Amino acid sequence: MRLRSPRDVRAPRALRGLRPRLIAACVAVAVLAAATASWASAASASNSLLRSTQQRIADTAARGITDTAPALVYPPDTGDLRKIRDALDGPVVVTYESLRVQAGETAAITEQLRTAVHGGDHLALQRVDSATGMKLLVGMPVLITGVDGQQRPSGIEVYLVRDLGEVVRQVNALTRNAIWTSALALPVAVLLALLAARGVLRPVRELRGAARKLAAGDLDARLRPSGADELAELATTFNDTAASLQSSISELARMEADSRRFVADVSHELRTPLTTLTSVAEMLEEDLERMPSDARASIELAIAETRRLASLVEDLMEIARFDAGAAQPHLERVDVPGVVRECLRSRSWTGQVRLDSPEELAAVLDRRRLDVIVANLVGNALRHGDPPVVVRLSADEQELHLEVIDNGPGLPEGIAAQLFDRFYKADSSRGRSAGSGLGMAITAENVWLHGGTIEAGNTDSAGARFAVTLPRWSEET
Amino acid sequence: MATIIAVMAQILLIEDDQSIRTSLALALGRHGHEIREAGTGEDGLRMLASAEPEVVVLDLMLPGMDGFEVCRRIRAKSAVPIIMLTARGDDFDVVGGLEAGADDYVIKPVQPRVLDARIRAVLRRGTFAEQTQSDRYRDLTIDRAALTVTKGDQQLALTATELRVLLELSRSPGQVLSRMQLLELVWEYGYLGDSRLVDNCVQRLRAKIEDEPARPVFVQTVRGFGYRFGPV
C-alpha cells in the first residue's frame, strides 16, 4: 500500500486538526470562566451594595424615629405624627389608626407593605420599580416600651420612600464591567490558546517528523525531550523505541553481513581445492577411454560433480559480489543479436531456440552480463519449459526489450514473486536439477545492475514468458 | 591433446598452493609445456632471471609480496608475457593486474585447456612476423619484419601484446577497429573477451609511444566504437 503523502492529508486536517480543536477548547474555557467569574462577582457586589444601602436607609429611619419616640404622648395626635415626619427626610407617611401625615411623593407605597407592617413589630422592606426608577419602600412600626419593660407596637406606623436610582446606576456599571471583562478575555484567551497550542503542537510536530524519518529508514532519527511533561515522556519513549529498533536492525544487518561474508569466504576458500580438482578432472577425462568401465563410470561422476561444484561456487561468489556492492557493469557498445547468437551457439542451443530479432540492434550494455542473462533465461526455459523456445529482441529509442518464451506448462500460480529468490526451485521434485538455484537471482541482479526490470509471467498460450527491459544507452564506462 | 605439440613453452608458474602447482604442472606438461614452479613471489622473481621463461603464469593472491607487486617487478625488467590467475570477474584483481602489466588473465578454478589456449595465444603474438616493409610515422618506426618499434632513435621495449595491438591498428591507418575485433585479432578471444584487456593494453602502449599519452596522436580513441591508428 502506498503511503499517503503529507499533501494528501492536509485538507481534512484543517477541519479536524489538533490545533483548531485545542484553541477552540482553550478559548471556550477561558471565556466561560471569565464571564462566570465576573458575572458572579458583579452579582455579589450588586447584592451587597443594595443590602448596605437598604440597611443604611433603614438605620437612618430607625434612628430618626428612636430620637423622636420618647417625646411622644399616647395616644398621639397629628402633631406627634408631624414630629416624627419632620425627623425624617424625604417622602414619608406616618399613620396612627385613622390619622395620617405625609410629606413628598408617597404614592409608591404598596398595600402589601402596609399589610406586612400593620400589627407587626418588624421592619419591612420592599423594592418597587416605578415610572421614576427603582424605589425602596421602608415600613416600620414604632414600638413603645411598657411598664413591664416589654416592647410592643404603639400603633404608629412610618412608611418611607427612598430613591435607589444611584444604586441601580452603580449596579449597572458593575454589570457593564462584567461584560467588558468577558469581552476582553476573548482575545487574551485566543492569544494564550495559540501559545499553549504551539507549546503542545511543536513537540507533536517534531514527533511526527521524527516518526516519518524513522519510517523512511533513517534509524538515527531522535527527539530532544524538553521539560518533564507527558510530551517529554512521549519523546523519551520514542527515542527508546527508535534506539531498540536501531539496535535490533543493526544486529540483524550484522548477522546477515556475517553470514554473507562467511559464504563469500567459504566460496573463496573452496576455489583453491576446486582449481586442483578441475585440473585433475580434465586430465582424467582425457584418459577415460583407457580405463576399465567401472572406474570410468566413477570418474565420470567425479568430473561431473566437480564441474557442478565449480559452477555453484562461481554463482555463490557472483551473488556475494552483488551483496558486497562490488559488482560493476562494464558498459560498452554491444551488438545485441550478435551476443545472443553467440550465447546460444557457444552452448549448442542454436537448434532448440529461435531468435526473433532485427538484423542489427546496438545498445550500451555489459556484454558478459547480457550473456549471463540470456544464458540463464534460455537455460531455464529449456530445463523447465518445452520447445520451441523463442528469444525475442526489440527496442525503442530508450529501451531494449528481451523476451524469452517457452511452450511448456507455464509458471504455476503465484510463484512469479519468489522466482528470483535465492535457491528458489519451482519444482521441488527436481530439487537437484542442473542449476545451482542461484541462476534466476543472478539474472535479476544483473538486470537491476543495468537499471532494468525483469518480469515473469505466462503467455496467452500458457507457456512461461520472461520479459527483461534494459536502458539502451547508458553512459559507457 | 597430449600428442599434438604445437608449442612447447618454458613456463614459470608462481602459485602458493602446492596442489594447484602440482596439478597445473601435470596438466600443462601434457599440453607440451615445461613448467618451473615457484611458491612465492620472491622465488618467482629469482627464477625469472635464471630460467628465462617464455610465459609467466602468476597467481595474484600470494603470501608476502603480492601478485601485483611481482607483476610490476617483472615488467620493470622484462617483456615476458604474463597471464594472471584471478577470481572470476573480481574487478579489482583484473584491473589491478592489467595495470601492473599483465597480458591476459584466467579465472580460477581454471581448466588447464583454457590456460593452455591462453598461453598459446600469447606466444603466437610474439612470433607473428608479416610483411617486410617498415613504416615510419613522424618519429615512430614500426618494423613489421623484425617486430621492433623505434621512437626517435630509441628502440622501445614493447610486450608482444602491445606490439601486436600496434601492428593491427597501424596496418590500415585511419580505420577503426572495435575492441571486439582487437580481442579477436590479438587475444584470440570469442565474443566474451574482456574489453578491459584492450583498454589497458592501449594505455600502456600510449605511455610508450606517445609524446603526451593523455592526448594521443598515434592510437586514438573513437568513442563508442574502438581505436584507430592516426591519422598522423
Automatic annotation (TrEMBL), chain A:
The protein's name in its UniProt record: histidine kinase
Subcellular location(s) of the protein: Cell membrane
Enzyme class: transferase
Domain Histidine kinase stretches: 265-474
Signal sequence region: 1-42
Reactions catalysed, as given in the entry: ATP + protein L-histidine = ADP + protein N-phospho-L-histidine
Keyword terms: Kinase, Membrane, Phosphoprotein, Signal, Transferase, Transmembrane, Transmembrane helix, Two-component regulatory system
Transmembrane helix in keyword set: yes
Enzyme Commission code: 2.7.13.3
Domain HAMP: start-end pairs: 198-250
One MF annotation (Gene Ontology) recorded for this entry: kinase activity
Domain of life: Bacteria
Pfam families: HAMP, HATPase_c, HisKA
Automatic annotation (TrEMBL), chain B:
Domain OmpR/PhoB-type: 132-231
PROSITE patterns per record: OMPR_PHOB, RESPONSE_REGULATORY
Protein name listed in UniProt: Response regulator transcription factor
Record InterPro entries: CheY-like_superfamily, OmpR/PhoB-type_DNA-bd, Sig_transdc_resp-reg_C-effctor, Sig_transdc_resp-reg_receiver, WalR-like, WH-like_DNA-bd_sf
Gene3D superfamilies attached to this UniProt entry: 3.40.50.2300, 6.10.250.690, Winged helix-like DNA-binding domain superfamily/Winged helix DNA-binding domain
Pfam families, sorted: Response_reg (PF00072), Trans_reg_C (PF00486)
Occurrences of domain Response regulatory (ranges): 10-123
Alphabetical list of CDD domains matching this protein: REC_OmpR, trans_reg_C
Entry keyword Metal-binding: no
Keywords linked to the UniProt accession: DNA-binding, Phosphoprotein, Transcription, Transcription regulation, Two-component regulatory system
Native source species: Prauserella halophila
Keyword flag DNA-binding: yes
4-aspartylphosphate: residues bearing it: D59
Record feature DNA-binding region, as residue ranges: 132-231
